[in-house]
Write a structure and sequence with these properties.
By secondary structure, the chain is an alpha/beta fold. It has two helices and eleven strands. The protein has helices at residues 23-39, 136-142; strands at residues 4-5, 12-13, 41-45, 49-52, 67-71, 78-81, 86-93, 101-104, 110-113, 118-124, 128-130.
């Protein structure tokens, strides 16, 4: 039986007894993908409109890294479409051009990040949400 891939991070799951003598090659690649998902960074250029972030099985892609920086000069509002799986993202809207960036799944609701701002976003597999309510940090500052 051939390997399969996990649904959320798209890393390879070997079957029992598969790749005898070369398991370390796949095992090492899995750890690279996990590291990318936990601490990875990618910059994605856009001018606006809809961009579906790449999602590849067991290969580097745009939607696996935790930190995604949007770059470019927007001529319209931009949307980054991410895979419909549960995951946490840090989104940095480093674009220019007086438009916004929305991060969403193909069929769900999204979170809008205005230019120059960063947001922690989580996806529940369908919809995206901002990790903290808008006044969370103000409350933390007020409480010392």
């Amino acid at each position: 039986m051939a390997s399969s891939y996990t649904t959320r991070l798209r890393v390879e799951k070997q079957t029992n007894g598969e790749n005898s003598g070369t398991w370390n090659t796949i095992y090492s690649a899995v750890f690279e993908m996990l590291e990318e998902a936990i601490a990875g960074y990618v910059a994605v250029a856009t001018t606006g409109g809809s961009t579906t972030l790449s999602a590849n099985n067991n290969l580097t892609d745009q939607s696996r890294p935790m930190i995604i920086k949007a770059t470019g000069t927007l001529v319209s509002n931009a949307t980054f479409t991410i895979p419909a799986g549960s995951k946490i993202y840090v989104i940095w809207n480093a674009t220019s051009g007086a438009f916004t960036l929305t991060v969403k799944t193909s069929g769900g609701t999204g979170v809008t990040v205005t230019q120059g701002n960063k947001a922690i976003i989580f996806c529940d597999g369908t919809d995206c949400y901002q990790a903290f309510d808008g006044d969370f940090f103000i409350q933390q500052l007020a409480n010392g």
